[in-house]
């Protein structure tokens, strides 16, 4: 079942930062990797991705530099900054807490328990 953009909106930055932890990348490649890693359950729109990398860059969490793609085309690459690594860790902890709280409600509903 495809994931709606509304459901994942708050986690796009986390996904981008997680990919940039591995290596610098350009926007199209990031979009392809997001789709691939999601098992085709989520395909990010280019406008959403560009907004995310620009927001992360404005916040000092990533930096950009000119490079050339494997096909030889000029590209703007993004790399995670030290502040981005710290922010990533913070957002992972936040995600785990959020998931834990939501799981409690889902589990209670599945068991027919109300509080």
TrEMBL record:
Pfam families in UniProt: PadR
Domain Transcription regulator PadR N-terminal: 16-87
CDD domains reported for this sequence: HTH_ARSR
Xref: SUPFAM superfamilies: Winged helix' DNA-binding domain (SSF46785)
Name of the protein in question: PadR family transcriptional regulator
Taxonomic classification: Bacteria, Bacillati, Actinomycetota, Actinomycetes, Micrococcales
């Amino acid at each position: 079942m495809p994931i709606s953009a509304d459901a994942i909106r708050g986690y796009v930055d986390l996904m981008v930062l997680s990919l940039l932890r591995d290596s610098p990348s350009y926007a199209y490649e990031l979009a392809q990797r997001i789709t691939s890693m999601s098992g085709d359950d989520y395909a990010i729109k280019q406008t959403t991705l560009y907004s995310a990398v620009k927001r992360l860059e404005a916040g000092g969490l990533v930096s950009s530099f000119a490079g050339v793609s494997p096909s030889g085309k000029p590209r703007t690459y993004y790399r995670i900054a030290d502040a981005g690594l710290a922010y990533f860790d913070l957002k992972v902890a936040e995600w785990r807490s959020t998931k834990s709280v939501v799981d409690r409600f889902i589990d209670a509903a599945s068991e027919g328990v109300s509080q």
